[in-house]
Amino acid sequence: MLGKRRGIPRAQWPRGSMTTRAIPAFMIRRLPFFYGWVVLACACCAGFARQGGAVATLSVFVSPMTHEFGWSRTAISGAVSLGGLLAAITSPKLGPILDRQGARLVLCLAVLGTSAAAMLLSFTTGLVWFYAMFCIARMNFAGPFDLGIYGAVNNWFVARRTFAISIASVAQMSGLVILPLIAQWAMVSGAMLAGGWRSGWLAVGAAVLVVGFIPNWLLMVRRPEDVGLVPDGRSTSAPNPSRPSAASIPEPSFSRAEALRTPAFWMLSLFTLFAYPVQAGVSLHQSPYLIECGLSPTMAATIVSFFSLLSGASSMAYGFWPRRWPIRYALALTGLLLAIGVAGLSMIANAWQAYLAAAIFGSGIGGLFTLLPIAWADYYGRRSYGAIRGIALTVQVLAQASGPLLSGLLRDATGTYDRSLQCFFALSCLSVFAALLGRKPASNDGQSPFRSA
Question: According to the CATH classification, is domain 34-234+253-437 in 1.20.1250.20?
Answer without folding.
Answer: yes
